[in-house]
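Researcher: Last one for today. Full complex below.
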Amino acid sequence: MFRHTDHLQFQAKPEKPDPVYARKLQELIGGAFGEMTVTMQYLFQGWNCRMPGKYKDMIMDVATEEIGHVEMIATMVARLLEGAPATESTRAASADPVMAAVLGGMDPQQAIVAGGGPVLADANGMPWNGRYIVASGNLLADFRANVAAEAQGRVQTARLYNMTDDPGVRDMLRFNLARDTYHQNLWLAAIEELKADGLEGTVAPDALFDEEYTEHASQLWNLSDGTKSAEGRWAGGQAPDGVHEMAFLADPAPLGGPGVPPPPDPLLYATYDGSLGKPAKPELGTETGVVGKIKKAME
Amino acid sequence: MFRHTDHLQFQAKPEKPDPVYARKLQELIGGAFGEMTVTMQYLFQGWNCRMPGKYKDMIMDVATEEIGHVEMIATMVARLLEGAPATESTRAASADPVMAAVLGGMDPQQAIVAGGGPVLADANGMPWNGRYIVASGNLLADFRANVAAEAQGRVQTARLYNMTDDPGVRDMLRFNLARDTYHQNLWLAAIEELKADGLEGTVAPDALFDEEYTEHASQLWNLSDGTKSAEGRWAGGQAPDGVHEMAFLADPAPLGGPGVPPPPDPLLYATYDGSLGKPAKPELGTETGVVGKIKKAME
Amino acid sequence: MFRHTDHLQFQAKPEKPDPVYARKLQELIGGAFGEMTVTMQYLFQGWNCRMPGKYKDMIMDVATEEIGHVEMIATMVARLLEGAPATESTRAASADPVMAAVLGGMDPQQAIVAGGGPVLADANGMPWNGRYIVASGNLLADFRANVAAEAQGRVQTARLYNMTDDPGVRDMLRFNLARDTYHQNLWLAAIEELKADGLEGTVAPDALFDEEYTEHASQLWNLSDGTKSAEGRWAGGQAPDGVHEMAFLADPAPLGGPGVPPPPDPLLYATYDGSLGKPAKPELGTETGVVGKIKKAME
Amino acid sequence: MFRHTDHLQFQAKPEKPDPVYARKLQELIGGAFGEMTVTMQYLFQGWNCRMPGKYKDMIMDVATEEIGHVEMIATMVARLLEGAPATESTRAASADPVMAAVLGGMDPQQAIVAGGGPVLADANGMPWNGRYIVASGNLLADFRANVAAEAQGRVQTARLYNMTDDPGVRDMLRFNLARDTYHQNLWLAAIEELKADGLEGTVAPDALFDEEYTEHASQLWNLSDGTKSAEGRWAGGQAPDGVHEMAFLADPAPLGGPGVPPPPDPLLYATYDGSLGKPAKPELGTETGVVGKIKKAME
Amino acid sequence: MFRHTDHLQFQAKPEKPDPVYARKLQELIGGAFGEMTVTMQYLFQGWNCRMPGKYKDMIMDVATEEIGHVEMIATMVARLLEGAPATESTRAASADPVMAAVLGGMDPQQAIVAGGGPVLADANGMPWNGRYIVASGNLLADFRANVAAEAQGRVQTARLYNMTDDPGVRDMLRFNLARDTYHQNLWLAAIEELKADGLEGTVAPDALFDEEYTEHASQLWNLSDGTKSAEGRWAGGQAPDGVHEMAFLADPAPLGGPGVPPPPDPLLYATYDGSLGKPAKPELGTETGVVGKIKKAME
Amino acid sequence: MFRHTDHLQFQAKPEKPDPVYARKLQELIGGAFGEMTVTMQYLFQGWNCRMPGKYKDMIMDVATEEIGHVEMIATMVARLLEGAPATESTRAASADPVMAAVLGGMDPQQAIVAGGGPVLADANGMPWNGRYIVASGNLLADFRANVAAEAQGRVQTARLYNMTDDPGVRDMLRFNLARDTYHQNLWLAAIEELKADGLEGTVAPDALFDEEYTEHASQLWNLSDGTKSAEGRWAGGQAPDGVHEMAFLADPAPLGGPGVPPPPDPLLYATYDGSLGKPAKPELGTETGVVGKIKKAME
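Model: Here's the assembly. Have a good evening.
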């Protein structure tokens, strides 16, 4: 269960409105790596964490912090939109380059749909969606996704930092940049901790190594021009997992045969000339179909 | 430019059709971490790479390999669908539990839309989309996303490996698992190489540390019950970036004031009682609006 | 079955083209509360209405009217785009602030994709989709959704009314505003009629009151700072349904235990330390799994 | 800012796992009217509320409660999935109707993607998205949307209540049904309060009545067969807003002319025979184009 | 403007309910080539048609017919769902293979969301969206899209025809198949008519032939193994447009240089080693940037 | 399997950057008919082609070419963005109309998300998705879709050609226009070849003519005002398939009865007055339900 405190985690007061920037900030609310993504990603990871204790607790700490980040940026957007043009059309723009820029650069839905506030979408108005989040239950794989999300988020925040010179906006972004730095370190530290606790290794998941084809777990397949890709750390020496030796496959040949699909079911009306032989009967489990043979075997 | 060889990178021959499994395999084609995602992610990273040479080359190698993985799994799906029920309805199911299971578990669009082949969608039929890919131009941030993608991909492949006992399917998945292992090691090695080459550090981007609020770049904000989250590596000691000291903020208080949006533009018809004072005039840049003042200052 | 008359329900003639406004009007075609939504919402409600007669007839009347509204606004958009810049690039804009505004504010797909006409998308180019519509079969719940849709639609239309001073556009919007007023009244009246006819009550659905926990059907849980939320009509006195007494729960405590998920199936490779005990066997319905016990009980 | 308590708002313990039902419950997490929608809808309404005090406070109370509802149902889903089949394929189903049903009815992504936990999607696996939420800044319009959302939510919960006989699941749903009842009453009471406070009327927004065409604000246009739609409350008498008189337009005729778009810009290559006259020059604002005339007038 | 008649265009009465088939039929309502697509595609083409007369009229005829097709199939879906299982869970399925199949194969949202009726989505529950429609204003290009849509639609209808043996369903589909046949012929005839009227040629649009590089308008680039693709009609002889000669390019070489992007703006934090030289200054139009030079040239 | 050559298929060098045009070009990357669509459409058609030989080979040739087209345009976009404004806000625009236009017209995600490169989205920032592609297995239906895609693609390219006067951009587009011309001819020729080979006819699929209602396979239903639609080739004479006679149905009447859905299951809480009789019991297959009768009949 959650509780709310009406003070913001950090101040979110622009010195001056800037409706064009208000659109850009939407990326940090509803973009693929915005605050909404990390909020829901960490909440679902926390709720799905199978170990009560330090990991689950820490994930819930950060998740709960992130809801407050959405709140901060949503408030900032509303303030950046104060006094934005709600009434004018192209005609007015012809005498005023500021208005021309603002009319062009604004998100029209912030006015028409949200009444001068934020929407739950990115800088191009595409709504946030639930496929952005990663919560697989494998903490190593998920923490790697978390490092990646915080890294992308900090790159975007850094870019946005340079797109304004408003002292109030920059004040808030200085806080956000710092949290993104901490959170990158946090998830990297948590990966170390998983190893130290003997819960995970380097490769996720730490399983099926004996099933997979080891000879294919080490080579870079050189499939583009030249061999410059042989010059990197990835083309030789011990792999980061401490187990595999890395190698370079200079001139790889396909290992499989031609990728021909089977003869089609005639009742699906795929174009066919019979060159692959007679198709299996379409009815499931009757005389000659393969699934029919399974069924018979089961009986 | 690309060229195609009609042999598959690796064999993709199921021993027997299994239309229910054919639906599950869609996750590896069109899921958020399926082969389509890594294909397009690496292609766009490669095309956007600003350094001719080993990095760009290597990225294009792997990208080109991944198109062939989509091809392998697409072929496998078509073969798993051979002889699947194209004609029967509920009535037939009442006498046949195999058909009952298959009718229920199949992806109906594989038959109706694709004529017995794969669709470009995930295991629930949701189409793949371009927001799944990550290509920011910052190679450190992108390689972290690549590790994460390969980790999630291998977790999903491992789960799918256990969901079949078909020797032919497992044969292909043993290859895929191995490539996912190599690719995780590859991107981890590439992160080491970026540091060794002096191109990036630990935190992405390696910039703006002097602008961000350092005091907020180190603390875990304890926002959920208890203090078990203080027990982890992330709550003390040197951060993985070798620069910051990590710490635990046991009882954090908000640093900002209440998140009140400004008085609304009356022509947007937000409900308002005047308690925040008189709203700025809505027209942009005229007398009293804040943006108006900017414009005047510029003049 | 439907028939079409080639006259518009109401005039849609702008005095002058305005390609920036043409983009904004897209919200009324393909936005979440645009004419397309009410068209399809009412059609599906009508087709799914289980009572031949006045309700079904009325719903189909309004649904059929709304198709004509999409037509009116689509025509208006095409006319607003007449003579819009189809050829120029940034270079031309540098000498002409009108063009600067127009180039920036236009929807590029109206030109590139639709050849100077409307698209089936909102003001940010996001396509309309079928999840916007509400047609549950419960007329009370659906009519409440209809009031809400007409209210949001009229709010948006009112905002758009202020964003133009073109007499022809305003002429059409005066008609639309009036229809939105009537339709709000219509659906409110229809809710009264449902009650008068004894078909529904105040709360949707009018069922399961004896099953739900009555003590939880009356209290506001105070989960944010302060107690100002106790001052409203919702915190005491008789509820609008005439049955419940409303109340204020000043300091609510959670009623459930910790939200711990069960021990994971090992073949799904979730990170786990055994702290929740031994996981159930993953195989469905075999010896020790819980679903297995169900099956046995059934046998 | 938010804080988290690790106890659930209400108990979420199924008596027995039921993976088929776990898929259906996804509708209450990530469906258009699931808990995620009301959570984000109320948060954005609260953050965008322009009046500190009882309304904003109450909205934040309910919003904060709803995050806890997502948590409860997410936990329930994980528990319903305990022991679900993670390994079997069609072959096994042929001997076991339970497994046949479960294999067919499960959400494959709950296993493959989430490792035996919930996803942020609906019962068909479609991800939740930000266009589901309504937060226009007009509280009357938004509260009507809130009543509608709670009504649809309670209808869906009631349906789901009948789809299980598990005492633990029903226990939780009894709580949810009760909260949905209270919340419907709450938003209806809040609409009364808005009127009592003189902030809003019956029709949203309470503006532009003098601009809209009054004669069109009262009539039902009879556009489908018969005149049964004249028999309802909406076809005569005073409207719910207490201002308009409702009426029935038995045989409506279109009020506009034919909906002909203007002659096309030749450089957009629309098919055209010249029957509408010579098209305007495509260049913006040059000699003969209409926008050109605007520009000249401005000069 | 439109009018509605309450009789269906054709009968839609299944002999018996079949809830599994009801899900499959959703493809014909809300799939990419379902009735909703052709309805909205033809409506937008008609509204955007720049020639009053036979073309516009005919497009509106077919568009108006298609709304009635959505109506027919929506009605059929509701009837197929009669008596479908609204209450049972996995437990009941264990004793009943029919229920097992039905529970697995049903669309859960038809019950939970639509109350036993159709949804505006496809067979996998993915909602219909506005990007499915094609309405470019170029009638040749659009009529080709119409032939394609009717062809895909008839292929899908034919597949669905074989998936049922219900005489009532087949009765309706016999009508739909026939209309799809007529509509394919219709759009092919309309393409002939466009040519006969001198409005369009074979290639859309019939323009810019003198601008495009003629030598590249005739050759098949052989980019995959072997030369079997040289054996087709497309590799030699006169092209269908009667103008070009077709040819086979056996061993094509790239015509461009390496695809290297320019040096990056340092404030966007792309990883970079300086190998492409010094990046242009990021500020727009100031001293050394290229856009700056344009601006100067304009001045 | 695929291989990559680092030279572009054709040169992609703009003379000057133009960030506004860079946004428009996104339509050719990630729009519904952009290069990404044809790439994936042809790949899936090729992988799903059931006839080794000239068709499959040719499809793979073109598919492989199209990946290279995505590459060309992605490179062009990065180059058009060189020196684009990465730092400025509204304030700067007030003194500079070029910047005003550019700020307004740019895609903010090209900077914030992609670091000055392309995104996998269209000109409005909507991501490309897998439902854009058509690969039904019926080659006639698919080739018709391919002609349509190339026609729409060439129309869009032609429009974009007129939106720039940059010689380098036009150089590349002259190549693209030519390939679109060839590809339209190619797919038209391939349709001829399918007929010549006796694999398909004119209508797709070439089946079920004896099942469909022939009398409905020939008439235009006149459902809109007037009879001008009788004047076209489609209203009389032999149909393009050489079999049917086309005709005009001047005053069509509905052939079906009213579209009334069945009485609702009471446990789904649809509003109902009993006018349709007693609903079937909701439990599947038990005593009185219709599906129950099927089950009994099967037994």
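DSSP finds nine helices and four strands in chain C. The radius of gyration of chain C is 27 Å.
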